[in-house]
């Protein structure tokens, strides 16, 4: 009955109202609090999402591997509400439960890269994520971005070009490619990518930054590159850009829920147990 009401809800506010009522009627039901947290997160009510996820976690008799999604989901809510230490702890807990979960590897690795911290660890984590999902443009972008932050601009360009080919309409990925192209001296192409980011225009802050770079270029000094790691095989990405060539069923991730949210993706998705 509750599931049918949830399915019939015609918008997020209505669904939230239904689940809030159900969670008050059945306060010990883990799934109700978890689903309510998902809805709050989708609606960008992150503090409410945290409260619902925390209540669900408190109801768990034990924390098993299959419960990694709720720590990931609460981590996203913490990150979006500027509570990074708590977000980081939840992402690490999710990886403790499911060490090779590509979306969690990507989210944590990209967050470290964007903050300019733990870059060597971030590269290793994101490479693992790319090996699991080589045709995911957002994850390939993350690898390009961590290489950029490490000052390995030539390497970064290749991955960022690949990411744009996979996700051509993403503003941040186009902006990242523009930055990398500027650093390797391909200034005209950099300007094209920044203009492309401006035209996409999904985020005002990214648009404003791209306009400034289009007018003035990048004025900060380049990063002195660290030596590349010696361990780990080189990635072999599909040159034909065929997303079906490496679907969700490779490398043991066939049963994962569809979780593609990351700081780079700006996507919202429901997180279910799996």
List its salient traits.
274 residues, mainly alpha, elongated, single chain, disordered C terminus
Task: Characterise this structure.
- The protein is mainly α and 274 residues long.
- Helices cover 62% and strands 0% of the residues.
- It is built from 13 helices and no strands.
- It has helices spanning 2-8, 12-25, 30-42, 46-58, 68-80, 84-97, 102-115, 119-132, 137-149, 153-166, 171-183, 187-200, 204-216.
- Helix 3 packs parallel to helix 5 (68-80), helix 4 (46-58) packs antiparallel against helix 5 and helix 8 (119-132) runs antiparallel to helix 9.
- The two termini are 23 Å apart.
Query: Ends: how far apart?
Result: 23 Å
User: Please, what is the oligomeric state?
Assistant: single chain
- Estimate the global geometry from the Cα principal axes: elongated
Can you count the helices? 13
Mean of the pLDDT scores? 85
Count of extended strands = 0
The helix/strand series, from N terminus to C terminus, equals HHHHHHHHHHHHH
Structural class: mainly alpha
- Largest sheet entry: none
Bin the strand percentage: under 5%
List the helices and strands and how they pair.
Blueprint: H1 2-8, H2 12-25, H3 30-42, H4 46-58, H5 68-80, H6 84-97, H7 102-115, H8 119-132, H9 137-149, H10 153-166, H11 171-183, H12 187-200, H13 204-216
Helix pairs in contact: 1-2, 2-3, 3-4, 3-5, 4-5, 5-6, 6-7, 7-8, 7-9, 8-9, 9-10, 9-11, 10-11, 11-12, 12-13
What is this structure, in a nutshell?
The chain has helices at residues 2-8, 12-25, 30-42, 46-58, 68-80, 84-97, 102-115, 119-132, 137-149, 153-166, 171-183, 187-200, 204-216.
